[in-house]
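The authors assume throughout that readers already know how a fold can be written as discrete tokens. A single example would do more here than another paragraph of explanation. An entry of this sort, consisting of the sequence and the corresponding backbone structure tokens, reads as follows:
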Amino acid sequence: MNWPRTIMDGIVMALLFNAVVGVGFLLYPQAYSTMFPKEIKEAAAPFVDPRQVKKMKLIIYPLYLLMPVYWAISGHMAGVTGFWTFFWTGYVEMTLVSLGDFLILDCWLPPYAKAYIEGADHCEAWKRKEWLLKLAIPEHGLAWTFIMCPLAGFLVAGIGMLLG
């Protein structure tokens, strides 16, 4: 595995991921409330426009698909070979994206995001401890670690093997 390349690709994609999600949030803040803790979702639901939710998904979902493609091509160009080497490359890179998401979008951003979500400014879920316990830690400690990162690893490995 090419560690310097893997770490740099992971950091660059973490920054790109956070930038894209941040711009998407600025464009459609109410739509992003659908991914927040239950209390905020329920309070913001009357103000959510389904068309904006679709636009938000058109911003995020292609990003999830393009990252493993980029990582596989980058790894291939860096001389990475073998299924498991590609897998662990993708896993580590997605872990760095998860870490960036956790630090930027879940630890730093919520107090500022509150001002953009109509109907949910009174929610207790905006408090850092509540946010971390109800969303960030389960999401990044469990879902990303055991579902998203292995999935990214398998995608990168599959694409990498197709590349030769």
